[in-house]
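[step 3/7] inverse_fold.run input=structure_tokens len=184
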């Protein structure tokens, strides 16, 4: 359990390796106002979607030879859940947390990589945790870029992506094959 969490949070980070949520990180690093609502919405929608999509895929689609259709069912389910949660938060809490692309990508990654139901839940939570672990790092890089004022000719987002690439190279500079002992 710990090596799956470590692997999907740091080594195979959903943000760095797959690019899931990279644009949301840049937006939230600029103004992190509704981050608490976004966190709760993402965790709730991804967990509910995995709980619904896993049995549909395992017990209906795979036995009937229709496993290729699971992304469609995942899309439909995550869209419905995201719309319900967005409407609920918009009407009761007067907060807008619209968007389901991040949840859908995390759901697909968890469904593809998860061997068991618990494994898929842990992978989805690890992907969301990796997103929120990278947020303070990007916020610090943005703050440092604003305080130094050396790169006036660069656009801020271009420089941010360059810093993200440097962080990515630092994380993957060493051999990480020892972390995935099940394969070898």
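[step 3/7] decode complete -> sequence:
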């Amino acid at each position: 359990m710990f090596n799956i969490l470590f692997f999907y949070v740091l080594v195979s980070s959903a943000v760095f390796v797959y690019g899931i949520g990279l644009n949301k990180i840049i937006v939230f690093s600029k103004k992190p106002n509704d981050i608490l609502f976004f966190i709760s919405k993402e965790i709730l929608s991804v967990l509910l979607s995995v709980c619904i999509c896993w049995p549909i895929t395992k017990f209906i689609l795979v036995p009937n030879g229709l496993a290729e259709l699971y992304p469609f069912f995942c899309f439909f389910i995550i869209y419905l859940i995201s719309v319900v949660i967005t409407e609920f938060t918009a009407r009761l809490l007067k907060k807008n947390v619209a968007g389901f692309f991040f949840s859908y990508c995390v759901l697909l990654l968890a469904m593809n990589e998860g061997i068991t139901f618990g494994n898929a839940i842990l992978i989805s939570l690890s992907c969301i945790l990796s997103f929120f672990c990278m947020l303070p790092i990007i916020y610090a890089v943005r703050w440092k870029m604003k305080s130094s004022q050396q790169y006036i000719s660069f656009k801020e987002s271009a420089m941010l992506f360059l810093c993200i690439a440097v962080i990515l190279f630092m994380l993957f500079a060493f051999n990480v094959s020892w972390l995935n002992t099940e394969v070898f």
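[step 4/7] annotate
The helical segments are 2-11, 22-30, 35-61, 70-92, 101-113, 117-148, 156-171.
The chain has a mean pLDDT of 82.
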